[in-house]
Specification:
alpha/beta, Oxidized Rhodanese, domain 1, 7 strands, two-stranded antiparallel ribbon, single chain, five-stranded parallel β-sheet
């Protein structure tokens, strides 16, 4: 394998890791993905009382439109905000962002902090669409 091929393999590996790293780590660490359809069913069922929907987008993104009932804790403030979530540790926690990447990172942090039932909303708000979305805080 020549130098250009080695460089291509290395760059390809780095790019794949950057794009899919959090998602792959979620699978390895036991964080499950949840589709928008699955979340809609869960929110309508009896399990909705045991659900914490955690939106980790920025303040502006959240105020621009979020799933009703979601709690807001931006990814960059997650570490400091974990004590606020301690009482909710045993709930099914579904983490959401715009596309699923930041929520995957947040889900990994929650799992590492001892949250047992953590899910990443696959595709984030892009997959969720406009149904049951509210604006403001």
């Amino acid at each position: 394998m020549g130098v250009p091929n080695v460089i291509s393999v290395v760059l390809g590996t780095v790019l794949l890791g950057a794009l899919f790293g959090p998602t792959l780590l979620c699978a390895i660490k036991g964080v499950k993905g949840m589709s928008a359809a699955e979340l809609r069913r869960l929110r309508k069922g009896i399990e909705r009382k045991n659900l914490l929907l955690l939106d980790v987008r920025s303040d502006g993104e959240f105020q621009g439109g979020h799933i009703s009932g979601a709690r807001h804790l931006p990814l960059d403030r997650l570490k400091e905000g974990l004590p606020l979530l301690d009482a909710l540790r045993e709930r099914n926690v579904v983490v959401v962002c715009a596309s699923g990447r930041r929520s995957a990172l947040a889900a990994l942090r929650l799992k590492g902090a001892g949250f047992n039932n953590v899910y990443n909303l696959s595709g984030g708000m892009l997959a969720w669409g406009k149904e049951d979305v509210v604006r403001g805080k």
